[in-house]
């Protein structure tokens, strides 16, 4: 697997899971990214089964946008390499001890920018071991 241009822009967002903030994030971050990278067909969106991801409104939004969403088994964070990456990012951010919102956001961005592609390959390979054909 080749991961070209894997590092996408992070979007800062403060949201409450019970409102339409997740759809707002998708509209303000996902759609512009799809447009920027000309991903208008032949791709599938991956997300876990968080309540805001599987809400009726979110499912309807994906249908209206004609975005294919990967079916995801419940309680399976071990199948998603991003979960282990978030753990790594969290540890690096804790080491920086941000004391306010601005420092936290800067720590997130610098940590994200420092991720080595070899770490991603390792995480993906570790997930493949858990999946049996």
TrEMBL record:
InterPro entries: RNaseH_sf, Tc1-like_DDE_dom. It holds the Pfam family DDE_3. GO terms for molecular function: nucleic acid binding. Residues 42-103 form the Tc1-like transposase DDE domain. This is Transposable element Tcb1 transposase isoform X2. It comes from Oopsacas minuta.
């Amino acid at each position: 697997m080749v991961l070209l241009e894997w590092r996408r822009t992070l979007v800062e967002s403060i949201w409450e899971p019970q409102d339409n903030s997740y759809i707002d994030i998708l509209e303000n971050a996902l759609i512009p990214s799809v447009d920027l990278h000309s991903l208008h067909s032949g791709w599938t969106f991956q997300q876990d089964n968080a309540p805001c991801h599987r809400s009726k409104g979110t499912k309807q939004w994906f249908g209206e946008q004609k975005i294919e969403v990967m079916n995801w088994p419940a309680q399976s964070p071990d199948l998603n390499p991003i979960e282990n990456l978030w753990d790594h990012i969290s540890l690096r951010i804790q080491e920086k001890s941000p004391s306010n919102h601005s420092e936290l956001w800067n720590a997130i961005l610098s940590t994200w920018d420092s991720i080595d592609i070899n770490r991603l390959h390792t995480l993906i390979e570790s997930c493949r071991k858990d999946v049996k054909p």
